[in-house]
C-alpha cells in the first residue's frame, strides 16, 4: 500500500482542485485524508482505486457513500488489529 498525496489524488480521480476533493469528502463521496506529517495528508492508494472503480462501474452516489463508509470501517479495523 502506498499513500497518495493531493496532486496524485487529483491526477488519479480527474478532480481539478483541492476544493473539489474536499467537497466530495464533505458530501461523503470520498474518504477522509490520513495525516502523514505535521502539515501533510494523504490517501491510501487502495481507497482511491476503489472509489474510481465504483465511479467507472456507474454506481450511484448512495452506493459510493456506502463504499466510503466501508473503507473508513476497514481503516478502523486495521488499526485495532
What fraction of residues sit in β-strands?
Answer: 5-15%
Low-confidence stretches: none
Q: Main β-sheet: number of strands, strand sense, barrel status?
A: 3 strands, antiparallel
Report the helical percentage.
Answer: 55-70%
Helix/strand order, N-terminal first: EHHEEHH
- The assigned CATH architecture is Orthogonal Bundle
Number of strands: 3
How far is the first residue's CA from the last residue's CA? 17 Å
Can you walk me through this structure?
This protein is an alpha+beta fold. It has a single domain, classed as Multidrug-efflux Transporter Regulator, Chain: A, Domain 2. It is 60% helix and 14% strand. The protein is built from four helices and three strands. It has helices spanning 6-13, 18-26, 45-56, 61-80; strands at residues 3-4, 34-37, 40-44. A three-stranded antiparallel β-sheet has the order 1-3-2. Helix 3 packs antiparallel against helix 4. The longest helix is centred in the C-terminal third of the chain and has 20 residues, at 61-80. The radius of gyration is 12 Å and the shape is globular. The two termini are 17 Å apart.
Key traits:
single chain, 81 residues, alpha+beta, Multidrug-efflux Transporter Regulator, Chain: A, Domain 2, three-stranded antiparallel β-sheet, 14% strand, globular
Amino acid at each position: 500500500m502506498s499513500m497518495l498525496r493531493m496532486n496524485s489524488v487529483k491526477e488519479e480521480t480527474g478532480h481539478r482542485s483541492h476544493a473539489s476533493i474536499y467537497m466530495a469528502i464533505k458530501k461523503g463521496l470520498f474518504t477522509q485524508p490520513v495525516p502523514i506529517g505535521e502539515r501533510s495528508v494523504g490517501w491510501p492508494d487502495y481507497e482511491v482505486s476503489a472509489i474510481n472503480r465504483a465511479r467507472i462501474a456507474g454506481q450511484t452516489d448512495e452506493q459510493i457513500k456506502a463504499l466510503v463508509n466501508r473503507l473508513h470501517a476497514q481503516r478502523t479495523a486495521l488499526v485495532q488489529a
